[in-house]
Amino acid sequence: MQNEGMGRRFSRKDVAHDLEEQRYDAVDAAFDRLKAQVIKDLLSVDQKGKALTGRKAEQYEDESGIIKTELFPEGAHILNIGDPWQVLDKEGVVNLEYETGEEADFVYDSERFLNSVLEELEEMQGGVENMRPYDASFASELAWRVNAVKEHVQSGIKPEDYPKQSKILYDITRIIGEHYGNDDSHGASREWWYAAMRLARGFEDVYYVKTVINPAIEKEIVQKRGISEEEREVLVRRLIGEFRGKKKYKHAEMVKGAFPDTPFMDHSFDRIIASWSISAHMFGVINKGQFAVVWKELDRILKQNGAAYIWPLDYWTGLGGNEMAMTLREHRAKGGDAGCIFLDVTADPRIEWIDDVKDDSDLAYNLTRSQTLVFLPRGFKREAKKRVAQSLHQTKVV
């Protein structure tokens, strides 16, 4: 008797299964291409629009309107989508930073760097002097430090002095941060903060190139009797990654990458936090399709009862609201949810979920004028919304 399966290589069921697999693969590949395009488009955005200072965990509660125990649950796995200047060094936290390693404007060329330093210092110096009539004490604190670095550069600074100048510049960032705290309305001081930070890192970088990177390359050349360009690039990338990473975190993990093109497995995180990062740098310049990619990636890497908190939404007031509203409604229709938290100087924080606002124009308005976006993944349980609502920080914003 002839075997029933003889004469046919694949059953119709097998063929259908293979076609379905190919379709899924094609969809995944298309999504990966979209994510990569979002990153490509965003890396050109002017990074001077960042927050005044790096955010510390202690500030997140006041800024977001959510209590710390909800943002950082005990034993949770948390993704911090970060501006590279932020400081979030906690157990269980993964810091995703697109400006780490060699992609963080690492300074290799000391001569070119020193030629640019003077111009930035003079611009900062002029701004500080303009401030003197209004805030003499603060201006004086900054002025002597800026002048000290400028004088060293003008007199022909030696490499062994780079760490000292870096320390003075870091001191400038500290003073500005302490003076203004969480108030990011002082645009000029925000620019000085980032200028001082860039220069401080630059002095560290050129010193590191001279004292670590170049000797390491020479050692490889001697040991291997030569080194290819590719080997050199790998060595330098590793050294810089270690240098930038180990200086910053003792407890948290740092991953170099860019949202939404992340390397994480599905359903990896209990919480996702984005303070002064994707909302400040992305939401005002991306389109409907790119918003959809952002929500899809958040949905992919969040655990079922996890939550993402993104703030500030009102940084790009009025821009992107219609696209945000439309794509979040689509996410809600697929089984997810989202809401926005309003902070007020005279009242406790309040939250409005998507379904609380029926009119699309009202939703768009609220999204761009509220403080924090709450994003819940598809398949969340009702208890998740209740947990979020009960986690509003019941302290009036001062």
| Number of DSSP E strands | 8
Amino-to-carboxy terminus distance = 87 Å
H/E order of the elements? HHHEEHHHHHEEHHEHEEHEH
Q: How many helix segments?
A: 13
Question: What is the fold-level CATH name, i.e. the topology of the largest domain?
Answer: Rossmann fold
Q: In oligomeric terms, what are we looking at?
A: single chain
CATH class of the largest domain: Alpha Beta
The major pleated sheet works out as: 8 strands, mixed
Classify the beta-strand content into a percent band: 5-15%
Radius of gyration: 25 Å
Which regions contain 5 or more consecutive residues with pLDDT less than 50? 1-10, 41-54
Strand adjacency order, main sheet: 3-2-1-4-5-8-6-7
Computed structural class: alpha/beta
Percentage of residues in helical conformation:
40-55%
What is the approximate shape?
Answer: globular
Task: Record keyword descriptors for this entry.
single chain, 398 residues, alpha/beta, Rossmann fold, 2 domains, 8-stranded mixed sheet, 13 helices, disordered N terminus
Would you kindly provide a brief summary of this structure?
By secondary structure, this protein is an alpha/beta fold.
Give a structural overview.
The protein is built from 13 helices and 8 strands. The chain is of the alpha/beta class and 398 residues long. A hairpin with a 2-residue loop joins strand 6 and strand 7. The radius of gyration is 25 Å and the shape is globular.
Topology, please?
Elements: H1 12-42, H2 57-64, H3 68-71, E1 78-82, E2 93-97, H4 110-131, H5 136-154, H6 162-180, H7 187-224, H8 229-246, E3 253-256, E4 269-275, H9 278-281, H10 288-301, E5 302-311, H11 321-333, E6 337-344, E7 347-353, H12 360-369, E8 372-376, H13 382-390
Parallel strand pairs: 1-2, 1-4, 2-3, 4-5
Antiparallel strand pairs: 5-8, 6-7, 6-8
Helix pairs in contact: 4-5, 4-7, 5-6, 6-7, 7-8, 10-11, 11-12
